[in-house]
Amino acid sequence: MTFNDKEEYSDFLETSVNYLQNLGYQNIKADMEGYETPKSYHKKGSDITITPDIVAEKEGRKHIFDISLKTSKTNLLKSKWLFLNTLSVLKSHRFRLITTRGHYKFTDEMLSDINLTDKKLIKI
Predict the structure, then answer these.
(1) In angstroms, what is the C-alpha Rg of the chain?
(2) For residues 39 and 115, what is the distance between their CA atoms, to the nearest angstrom?
(3) From CA 70, how far away is CA 74, in angstroms rounded?
(4) 21 has pLDDT over 90
(5) 86 φ, ψ to 5°?
(6) Which one of 53, 55, 88, 100 is CB 3.0 to 4.6 Å from 29, fit for a cystine?
(7) Given pLDDT bands bounded at 50, 70 and 90, which one contains residue 85?
């Protein structure tokens, strides 16, 4: 989810956090009020900052989650997913996408555009 969409979809972000808590995830950090904000990454030489939507731990392994909802800034979202996927591979974390009804096709097309078709979606 891009920075501009955070206010519009804050209720879905809260639903996602509750879903992850029910699955047994702990130390949840979310980019919303009431939770600690996950670590942000700043692109050197520009004003772009990437913050994962949700970071949680389960069974000693860190998981990075991003909310996938329709947006007009597809290039920014693709760059964010590629960065978070690369970061998770380098640090032996897990990267997953959370989406909901009405956004599946958009998410699948975005993943195929950036060759991340092996990612399984969490559908809420």
Answers:
(1) 14
(2) 26
(3) 8
(4) yes
(5) -65, -45
(6) 55
(7) very high
- Cα–Cα separations (whole angstroms), residue 8 to 3, 33, 89, 96: 10, 14, 30, 21
Residues 84, 50 contacting (CB under 8 angstroms): yes
- Alpha helices for the chain (secondary structure H): 10-22, 74-90, 104-113
Is this structure's pTM higher than 0.85? yes
CATH class as words, domain 3-123 = alpha beta
Q: Mind listing the pLDDT tens digit for each residue in 111-123?
A: 999 998 888 899 9
Torsion of CA 7, 56, 93, 9, to 10 degrees: -20
% of the chain residues with pLDDT over 90: 73
What are the domain boundaries of the chain? Answer: 3-123
What number is the average pLDDT over the span 43-51? 89
Cα–Cα dist 107/77, whole Å = 10
